[in-house]
Design goal:
heterodimer, A: Neuraminidase, 2 domains, four-stranded antiparallel beta sheet, 32 strands, 9% helix, B: alpha+beta, 60s Ribosomal Protein L30, Chain: A
């Protein structure tokens, strides 16, 4: 067994996770470029627990299965249908037994607690028809990171079988909402992509809105009404420190990081108008990008840093525009029926997600950066605020329910428009923003 | 940063108290309105007898004739009680997206402030804040609630007669 060793830096917790490549080959693959993908049947017997790792083995297997199923690209087969019992990690599977239950891929693994307390997880991904191992990896991590092992293994399986990076080892920053609708308390919160490990980052005393993840560092930019001054802030996830990005004569709002995390693009209010500015986080200098007698807001960079998409009502009602990153050459890209807003450029660069209001409905849709190929992914009473998974395959957004007791919940949908799912949160939740991959 | 913010809050509060104390000793109410319970010059007087808010059409910040009437009354009252300072809160209904509504409500607050200024109210007495769709007052999924939520509210921040 060839062993290539390398270290993966974990940005959230300054500790190492050791990853060992066990073996790699390739043949079985899911084509994710098609519209509706038939989920790939995958067998995932409980990982073998050794050295006190029995419970962890069971739980990690569960996380992997949940992640794969949530993507809509995999169908984990029920364990009760399995013929072969996997009792040893070194065991060569009886592929015929897995073919019989229609499995196309098989994952085997083992989890053990090492003498120093760390957790070691190993897995192998098998191609049932080709009767060979596709990939195998080993992870070693402090015990408190054990859930991340499940996410990392699921990402490795996703990448092996789709050819694209996964998105399971990620977090989502969002706004937790409590209290009645006319006296909502809003807190900045963070959770794992699958809704676990929810943590509040602010105490609810100040209204907070529109958090956005840095693409390159453990920082969030958001808007807070602290001290009665609505302004854009930075929050450092490692230190817990907060700082205002700049003090301007009027309100600053709608921030978003540039693709390398060194700049924040946002709106500044000037009397009745709002224009878009770019702030350099190192020099703290600002550059005015738009200068209209209108509302220009919700700017979002293209991943190559060359362009910015934003919304403006300069032509009468909210529409989407693309301009160069220095503010030149703005051109309208949305021409359908209705109002378009909250544009977000895909991390892959190929699409722009948006909210669309038309006929009393609020929809989430995507279009190409030139405005062509508009597709609505979900539509209803109130859907708003898309954010992209780091691989550009999945969009998360919030959906408001009707009524005085109603409120927002988080949902995800594939860019094909299929596989819509709710992300369970402890209470109402809005303004989700997806992190980049953690490792 | 947190310390800075809480420090600011304390400073603002202290200023408000000083202003309040200053006006209660110098400005005594003269005639009480028999129709209303509110003592003239009080915050309650302003809300009940003048009207503290104006409403807007969907996506608009243009003041309606009715809104201008209310604001003229507000300006007259503010002229009568020159120690009063105000903050104009802009609001939007829930049928819009978050960022746009913040900007739209800033437009409404600004339009209100500019009108009061045109009626002779010193700009230094007025501040604005934009709440977007974050603070609805009427909770139903229909126009008869949304039109109450599209508003600019003149909130007295200091200088009114206590009571």
């Amino acid at each position: 067994m060839s062993c290539k060793r390398y270290l993966v830096l974990m940005p959230f917790i300054a500790l190492f996770m050791l990853v060992t490549q066990l073996q790699t080959a390739k043949s079985l693959e899911i084509d994710v470029t098609q519209g509706r993908v038939k989920p790939l049947p995958i067998a995932l017997p409980n990982f073998i627990g050794s050295g006190g790792g029995q419970n962890l083995a069971h739980d990690i297997t569960g996380i992997i299965g949940n992640n794969l199923a949530s993507s809509g690209l995999f169908r984990p087969l029920p364990q009760a249908s399995y013929i072969e019992q996997i009792s040893s990690f070194s065991q060569q599977p009886r592929f015929g037994d897995w073919r019989t239950i229609q499995a196309q891929a098989l994952v085997t693994g083992q989890v053990s607690v090492l003498a120093d307390g760390r957790v070691r997880a190993q897995f192998r991904l098998w191609d049932v028809f080709a009767q060979k191992q596709i990939t195998g990896l080993q992870f070693i991590t402090p015990k408190r990171n054990w859930r991340r092992i499940g996410h990392l293994i699921a990402d490795a399986i996703y990448k092996s079988l789709t050819g694209e990076d996964g998105y399971f080892d990620t977090r989502v920053v969002f706004i937790s909402e409590t209290g009645p609708k006319n006296k909502r308390i809003k807190r900045l919160s963070i959770m794992d992509q699958d809704g676990f490990n929810v943590r509040n980052l602010t105490d609810g005393r100040s209204l907070v809105l529109t958090p956005r993840f840095s693409p390159s560092s453990q920082e969030i930019t958001y808007m807070s009404y602290a001290g009665g001054n609505p302004r854009v802030y930075l929050y450092n996830l490692q230190s817990g420190q907060r700082e205002v990005v700049g003090v301007f004569p009027n309100m600053s709002f709608s921030p978003r990081f540039g693709p390398r995390g060194r700049k924040v693009v946002m709106s500044l209010q000037q009397g009745p108008h709002s224009n878009i500015y770019m702030l350099d986080l190192q020099t703290r200098t600002t550059l005015q990008l738009t200068n209209t007698q209108a509302i220009d807001t919700a700017p979002s960079f293209s991943p190559d840093g060359r362009n910015i998409v934003f919304e403006s009502d300069r032509d009468g009602q909210q529409q989407l525009y693309v301009m160069a990153a220095n503010g030149t050459g703005p051109r309208r890209i949305s021409f359908g029926q209705g109002r378009y807003s909250t544009p977000v450029w895909s991390p892959r660069g190929d699409l722009i997600a948006f909210t669309k209001q038309s006929g009393g409905q609020f929809s989430i849709g995507v279009m190409r950066p030139d405005g062509s190929g508009e597709r609505i992914l979900t539509s209803g009473y109130h859907n708003e605020g898309p954010t992209w998974s780091p691989n550009g395959r999945v969009i998360m957004f919030f959906r408001e329910s009707r009524g005085a007791e109603g409120g927002p919940k988080l949902y995800s949908v594939d860019i094909t428009g299929y596989n819509e799912r709710q992300i369970k949160t402890p209470g109402f939740a809005s303004d989700p923003a997806w992190s980049p991959l953690l490792n | 940063m947190l310390r800075k913010i809480s420090g600011l809050k304390v400073a603002v509060l202290a200023f408000g108290l000083v202003a309040l104390a200053g006006c209660s000793s110098s400005n005594k109410p003269d005639v009480a309105n028999p129709q209303e319970q509110a003592k003239p010059g009080t915050e309650r007087d302003f809300i009940l007898n003048v009207g503290d808010r104006v409403h807007f059409i969907v996506n608009q910040s243009t003041l309606t004739p009715q809104a201008m009437d209310t604001l003229r009354k507000q300006a007259a009252w503010l002229t009568q009680y020159p120690n009063v300072t105000i903050q104009i809160e802009g609001h939007a209904d829930e049928r819009g997206t978050r960022e746009y509504n913040i900007a739209l409500s800033a437009r409404r607050a600004t339009a209100t402030r500019q009108f009061l200024a045109s009626q002779g109210i010193n700009a230094a007495r007025m501040s604005t804040i934009a709440y977007g769709k974050e603070r609805p007052v009427a909770l139903c999924d229909a126009e008869n609630c949304w039109n109450q939520n599209r508003r600019a509210v003149t909130v007295i921040t200091g200088g009114a007669i206590p009571g």
